[in-house]
TrEMBL record:
It comes from the Bacteria. Residues 1-29, 85-106 are annotated as: Disordered. This is Centromere-binding protein ParB C-terminal domain-containing protein. Residues 1-12 have a biased composition (Basic and acidic residues). It comes from Kutzneria buriramensis.
Length: 106
């Protein structure tokens, strides 16, 4: 009998400490997530993606994801270099819902 895949209950599901970190997620597959953007940044990125997809195929931008993925990868690399000696941070498969508590509250 085939093992059932674990259901992704989304970022709003309660975070169990045993599920927060680990290894073994598939690399390279695309997943859909909801994130919040500043409206102006999103508008500019959408306009760029639409224009480049229609008028500049040499840019290699066919969708909003083609702009966002490299930008996020570049920023994460900067953060890894600055705060983790250039190494990847430990994987976290689900983030707790809401904003992190202010450290001064603890």
């Amino acid at each position: 009998m085939a093992q059932q895949p674990e259901l992704d209950r989304g970022e709003d599901a309660p975070l169990d400490a045993a599920q927060a970190t680990g290894r073994g997620r598939a690399v390279g597959r695309r997943v859909q997530r909801t994130v919040n953007f500043d409206q102006e940044v999103l508008d500019r990125a959408r306009a760029a993606a639409a224009h480049l997809a229609a008028h500049a195929p040499e840019a290699g931008v066919r969708s909003l994801a083609d702009i966002i993925n490299p930008a996020v990868a570049e920023r994460v690399a900067e953060l890894e270099e600055r705060f983790n000696s250039g190494h990847p941070f430990d994987p976290v498969f689900r983030l707790p819902a809401g904003r992190p508590r202010d450290r001064s509250d603890t």
